[in-house]
Amino acid sequence: MGELALDISKVRKVYSGKVEALRGISLQVEKGRVFGLLGPNGAGKSTLVKILTTIIRPTHCEGEMLGKPIGHKPTLGRIGYLPEHARFPDYLSGVQVLEFAAGLCGISPRKCAQRSAELMELVGMTDWQHKPLKTYSKGMKQRIGVAQALVNDPEIVFLDEPTDGVDPAGRRDIRLLMERLRGENRTVFVNSHLLGELELICDDVAILSQGAIKMEGNLKELTGKQTEFRIKYEGELPADMEPILKTHRCRREPGLVIAPALLAKEVMPLLDALRSKGVVISGLERRSLTLEELFLGVVGDDRPGAGPPPLKGRSKA
Ligand SMILES: Nc1ncnc2c1ncn2[C@@H]1O[C@H](COP(=O)(O)OP(=O)(O)OP(=O)(O)O)[C@@H](O)[C@H]1O
Ligand SMILES: [Mg+2]
Description:
Elements lengths: L3 E12 L3 E12 L3 E5 L6 H8 L7 E6 L2 E2 L9 E4 L11 H11 L4 H14 L15 H12 L6 E5 L7 H16 L3 E6 L2 H7 L2 E6 L2 E7 H7 L1 E8 L7 H6 L3 E3 L2 E5 L3 H13 L3 E9 L2 H9 L18
Parallel strand pairs: 3-8, 3-9, 6-7, 7-8
Antiparallel strand pairs: 1-2, 1-4, 4-5, 9-10, 11-13, 11-14, 12-13
Helix pairs in contact: 2-3, 2-4
């Protein structure tokens, strides 16, 4: 593993002494990579990001971000953050939102003017930058949210559901932006449950469920580790094929027998059995799991909202 932007362990958060949102998780994120934290609603994704950005206090947390202990306030000047459901005063223009964010980071007005022009261009909002936010669509507000997260030229940027409410073209733009940030050797930490999107961009992922990390690692390795062979056949399968399909843990789709296996040679006995029964095989394809399949395999029956029970009269920590 290369140099780490984030190296944390035993992170625990119990809200109001009742809801255990994080159950002692450990996580490493390499510098210059796009890291995706995935998980169903209520898994604890935003809680973790809020701890790292010092918005809430952990019950327990060990480790470092950019070489400094978690909670080290000056390090916040080196990170960017787009909160989940970010709202900015809608009487401000896009530029004013950036000026406000720059002011909080202690950036001079002259430097801010230059930076905000660059960022507006980057998020495709140049033509709208002087109009008030109340005239923006949801996706345009989100673009401004991404821009303000980059105002201080951060080394690591946390994007909590950055494509929330953004249309497909806007989502692609945000994805390209993340690629660009990676190209500039920044670290991008993105929370999302839009798996198809993350699959296109993330180098590494961790799957969080009910406050615990269920799986983590390089995305290609994780999805490539579990492959299946899709055997296409013509006509009908003879009824007495069931036992052999069961032996090979196959599932069926119309015109397809799908066998989990890593190597082609593992499915040869199955092909022989099919052929010996006169089945005409018209295709064989090896396929890696998609991120969605991996996710559902890990998270299983966790349905939206299946995290720890919410408190009555939830309080802000
Ligand atoms: N301020 C709070 N007080 C009490 N419980 C909270 C608070 N904030 C979050 N929780 C609970 O902590 C758990 C984790 O919530 P969190 O917002 O971190 O999940 P998430 O993975 O970001 O979910 P989503 O995908 O819906 O954004 C949930 O059960 C939630 O109800
Ligand atoms: Mg969240």
